[in-house]
Write a structure and sequence with these properties.
heterodimer, A: 256 residues, mainly alpha, Ferritin, 66% helix, globular, B: 174 residues, alpha/beta, GMP Synthetase, Chain A, domain 3, 2 domains, four-stranded mixed beta sheet, three-stranded mixed beta sheet, 4 helices, 7 strands, 20% strand, PaaD-like (chain B), MIP18-like (chain B), Phenylacetate-CoA oxygenase (chain B), Fe-S_Maturation_MIP18 (chain B)
Chain lengths: 256, 174
């Protein structure tokens, strides 16, 4: 097991943090618009968990990168442009209707649970600690989204159609999650990362179980879009960032 | 230069450390004021470094817990009020906090306060669809129903008792 290069380690942490942050921000966009009060609480609480996980990772990434990089966690969040963001494409997809949001959440949480679980064995004890808690939180998110998919899929004709449309529309963004590129491979081999090909089989099993229980069709193999982890994003991320970063861009250095 | 402290100095250091520990044992959780941060397992370590600075280690409960900043401030405030100015508070993520760290005594305090305490040891369960039985903290009946998986704070879910008809918080198990 070789030492992981500092910049690869930073990059790997950034990918994890960015994905959680962007999905957390998407959840915050539901504030004041949720279908029922309980979901208002649920969506914002899920967002809070995700942003909390991201924050711990950013702070650790900053500590790892050391003196060469004097950016703090806030700088990473508010002062990077879209090509510097390394989140998965799936999580930057717009919220759409409630079915879209729940399917996106289920797809991501079904991936996050085994990823965090594997990261509890990271040689980096700080990451292992963050992962230990995040795994249980993700499990809670997965259960919440799965129960809604079951309710909608096995509900009315319209709710069934909406959730099936969401599954079909988001499917092409799921393949990227399991891509073992250079960074992921190096991180895994050094004991910092996760074997994403092993995660894939667990993800497929979970997703199949939820969709089957919800009387939904499991999509057929199709072409998968990728690029998020290397900074190639869809147009949605730029709009998200312009909203999220507005205050710090317009009034640099402002604090609460 | 490092020299061996005289006997009385070591005793002073020990007394100061114990004083700091006693002070911190009184700091309450801002969201659940019936519990101290020691009861809930947030306060992980109180030690003293070579130059006499009190080192306090706290651990976050839920990743997104908005009370962590407040808790760090309350720790600093409690030490400052007790005249202990040389102190440092740091956040540690490893090992991760779990509801299993909440003491039995604290569970009873939660129940008396009207919050159903988290189940012990069930946090590793991987069920996709939940069927947990939560006992009503008010009347003790097990005929309860979940109203919302997410409640008034990040660490709680909302339930209702079908027996006494009272709604209550359940401390989520992680």
């Amino acid at each position: 097991m070789g030492e992981l290069q500092k910049n690869t380690r930073f990059e790997h942490l950034l990918r994890l943090a960015d994905t959680n942050l962007i999905l957390g921000h998407r959840m915050s966009e539901w504030i004041g618009k949720s279908p029922i009060l309980e979901e208002e609480l649920a969506l914002t609480n899920i967002g809070l968990d995700l942003i909390g996980q991201a924050r711990a990772l950013y702070e650790h990434a900053v500590a790892v990168s050391g003196e060469e990089d004097n950016r703090d966690a806030d700088d990473l969040v508010f002062l990077r442009d879209a090509p510097e963001y390394k989140n998965l494409l799936l999580v930057e997809r717009e919220n759409g209707d409630f079915a879209h949001t729940m399917v996106r959440q289920m797809f991501y949480s079904a991936f996050a649970v085994p990823v965090w679980e594997a990261l509890t064995r990271s040689v980096d004890s700080e990451v292992a600690g963050i992962a230990g808690r995040a795994e249980k939180e993700s499990l809670y998110h997965l259960r919440h989204a799965s129960e809604w998919i079951l309710r909608m899929g096995d509900g009315t004709e319209e709710s069934h159609q909406r959730v099936q449309d969401a599954v079909d529309a988001l499917w092409m963004y799921t393949g990227e999650m399991f891509d073992m590129d250079e960074v992921e491979t190096a991180a895994f081999e050094a004991g910092h990362g996760v074997d994403l090909t092993a995660v894939r089989s667990e993800w497929e099993k979970t997703v199949r179980e939820v969709l089957t229980a919800a009387t939904l069709d499991y999509p057929e193999d199709c072409w998968m879009l990728k690029g998020g982890r290397t900074g190639k994003h869809t147009e949605h991320l730029g709009h998200l960032l312009s909203d999220m970063q507005f205050l710090q861009r317009a009034y640099p250095g402002q604090k609460w | 230069m490092v020299s061996t402290p005289p006997h009385s100095d070591a005793e002073d250091r020990q007394a100061l450390l114990e004083h700091a520990r006693a002070v911190l044992d009184q700091v309450c959780d801002p969201e659940i004021p019936v519990l101290t941060i020691r009861d809930i397992g947030i306060l992980r370590d109180v030690a003293m470094d070579d130059d006499g600075t009190i080192e306090v280690v706290i651990t976050p409960t839920y990743s997104g817990c908005p009370a962590m900043g407040m808790i760090a401030i309350e720790v600093e405030l409690a030490l400052a009020k007790a005249g202990i100015d040389a102190h440092r508070v740091s956040l540690r993520h490893s090992p991760p906090w779990t509801t299993d760290w909440i003491s039995d005594d604290a569970r009873e305090k939660l129940r008396a306060y009207g919050i159903a305490p988290p189940k012990k040891g069930s946090n590793s369960k991987r069920a996709l669809f939940s069927d947990e039985v939560i006992t009503c903290p008010k009347c003790g009946a097990s005929d309860t129903e979940k109203i919302s998986e997410f409640g008034s704070t990040a660490c709680k879910a909302l339930y209702r008792c079908r027996n006494c008809r009272e709604p209550f918080d359940y401390f989520k198990c992680i």
